[in-house]
Amino acid sequence: MTKQNTSDRLIIFDTTLRDGEQSPGASMTLEEKVRIAKVLEEMQVDIIEAGFPIASPGDFESVKAVATAVKNSTVCGLARSLDADIERAGEALKPAEFSRIHTFIATSPIHMKEKLRMQPDDVLAQAIKSVKKARQYTDDVEFSAEDAGRSELDFLCRVVEAAIDAGASTINIPDTVGYNIPHQFGELIKQLLERVPNADKAIFSVHCHNDLGLAVGNSLASVLNGARQVECTINGLGERAGNASLEEVVMAVRTRQDVFECDTNINTRIILPASRLVSSITGFPVQPNKAIVGKNAFAHESGIHQDGVLKSRETYEIMRAQDVGWSDNKIVLGKHSGRSALRSRLEEIGIKMDSEEALNAAFSRFKDVADRKHEIFDEDLRAIALESQATLEHTHYHLVSSWVCSETGETPFAKVTLKVDGEEVNGEAQGGGSVDAVFSAIKTIIKDHGTLELYSVNSITSGTDAQGEVTVRLEKEGLEVYGNGADTDIVIASAYAYLDALNKLAIATEREHPQYSGV
Ligand code: KIV
Ligand code: ZN
């Protein structure tokens, strides 16, 4: 089955799980992809690109799992213009209520000559063949002319016309290498809509990369010129410098309804929870000054600004923080709050626990944090929920306990007990500091630990009893993974983050990552 669009609707196609996962280090497990997909569905994203099924068995299973779990959004699978890719995508998408196959082939002179080593007419023929093949699996077929942003207009028009004739209902125009400038890219969309004779039979989409920091600008220029689908990712994740960020595109269009003739169907209050979830799963921190979802996006530092906002919010704010999921950060719960208070506050801030088991895990973690920290803020609750959900998922290593001795003039010493595939194992070591000692103790148990490339600590709220959020990056044979952990004790938060990264490293090594599959 497919869903249709009207021209005052801007379709949001999220590719966090596909192009987003192509960010070096952003590999996600099947369970994590399903969790993100469920949040995207709740946000009312129209199309969720769940992966590239031919890339690896893991990608195939993830697309299938998302297709099974998601009921209201269309689930999409990527395929090159090759029979085997399309068959694999069709197979993975079978369980979907609404499915789309997204097939692509490059149309720029450089890609055709150097990468594909094909003549333009052969590319055209293959595009037609692949769209027809995809139509055997679903009537919702998207065709992408890869590197359209550097393609010759006449040839691009021919390919687009032929793809529509062959049955593509969405035509995607990617700026694959982020080379375009907004007025130029907007003009490209305008030209295509004017020159392709059957352009009215398809929705025109754009997919912009951020190599020059222009992905959102190029996407918006295209919308002003008639594009009605934007491909984007949460937090702008994606290959190299990333894709257009969903939150920025959606909020620009929503905030400037005086300029845009269309709007999205997005429930914007889910934007912040989605951003936090993706950041926590991938370990990619969100920069504080990031529009919409950065810690400082709605913070007013200068006295003049604070005074203005207190007198009238609109003096310095063009959006309401609450509309994108921020809360006013008041104390929300304390150590005497019960399970149902926790559940209802989590729901109010856009976090639904997957199961009673997940809620129980979050509750016990909440009690633990509340014992050590009197005031629990929404930001604490987000960290608690994400942390407890992660520990429930299938992972190899869990922290059971840790003990650290740190004394002036003495070498710090740590003991840890881990559960490794269900069995308790102990380790101990000295280190340059408490964190170093704990990491060294963990390394005595887990030998396959790669190289620590980054370690950073951020405080989630203010005060010395605040939870510290630790990010760790590990590298092994060209594979990078991030891990996150939060706790009021930064040594324990560090152990959580390190184990999170080690779990990801183990999982990434077990399954072939699309980046390394040679596709
Ligand atoms: O950037 C790109 O061109 C892509 C295509 C597969 C749409 O990701
Ligand atoms: Zn891309």
Specify the helix fraction band.
25-40%
The residue-averaged pLDDT reads 90
Return the CATH class of the largest domain. Answer: Alpha Beta
CATH architecture of the largest domain: Alpha-Beta Barrel
> What would you give as the CATH superfamily of the largest domain?
Aldolase class I
What is the number of beta strands?
Answer: 14
* Apparent shape: globular
For the biggest β-sheet, the strand order reads 1-2-3-4-5-6-7-8
Low-confidence stretches: 512-519
Q: Write down the domain tally.
A: 3
Strand content: 15-25%
Q: Give the biggest beta sheet.
A: 8 strands, parallel, barrel
Structural class: alpha/beta
Pattern of helices and strands: EHEHEHEHHEHEHEHEHHHHHHEEEHEEEH
Termini separation comes to: 29 Å
Number of helices: 16
Ligands, ions, cofactors: 3-methyl-2-oxobutanoic acid, zinc ion
